[in-house]
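Exercise 7. Given the encoded structure of a 140-residue chain, write a plausible sequence.
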């Protein structure tokens, strides 16, 4: 069996292309579209950075739907809160406005509502629904 320079060239190109696509972002969300690092660093919404990223999040929602849990966490990071439901459903919650876990926000927690993002995964662990909602801060 004889290999020519063309076979070698095609083989190298195939390997490089495979590596490029395996390392690329699977959902195609660029840093210009959404600042994932800023979102991830604002745990529980304490720094109010997520509020400024809400419009960008709305724009990328269609690209998030259908992602598996691992790919979603690459973009949004660890959720602030996780709920497990029946039939293997899971909900992730990311606070946009400061949660009760933030320091120095007690006066803000006593009034109004808090915005949050809730992401529902289906039984096969794919993002099924993304909802931006409000929750009363002083539920009794």
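Solution.
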């Amino acid at each position: 069996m004889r290999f020519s320079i063309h076979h070698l060239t095609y083989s190298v190109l195939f390997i490089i292309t495979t590596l490029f696509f395996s390392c690329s972002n699977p959902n195609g969300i660029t840093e210009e579209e959404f600042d994932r690092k800023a979102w991830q660093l604002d745990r529980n919404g304490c720094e109010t950075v997520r509020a400024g990223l809400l419009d960008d999040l709305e724009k990328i929602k269609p690209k998030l739907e259908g992602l598996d849990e691992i790919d979603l966490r690459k973009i949004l990071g660890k959720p602030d809160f996780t709920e497990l439901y029946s039939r293997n459903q899971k909900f992730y919650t990311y606070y946009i406005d400061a949660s009760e876990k933030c320091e120095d926000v007690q006066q803000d927690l006593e009034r109004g509502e808090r915005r949050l993002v809730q992401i529902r995964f289906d039984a096969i662990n794919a993002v099924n629904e993304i909802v931006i909602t409000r929750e009363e801060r002083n539920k009794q």
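Remark. The radius of gyration is 20 Å. Students should compare their own answers with the one above.
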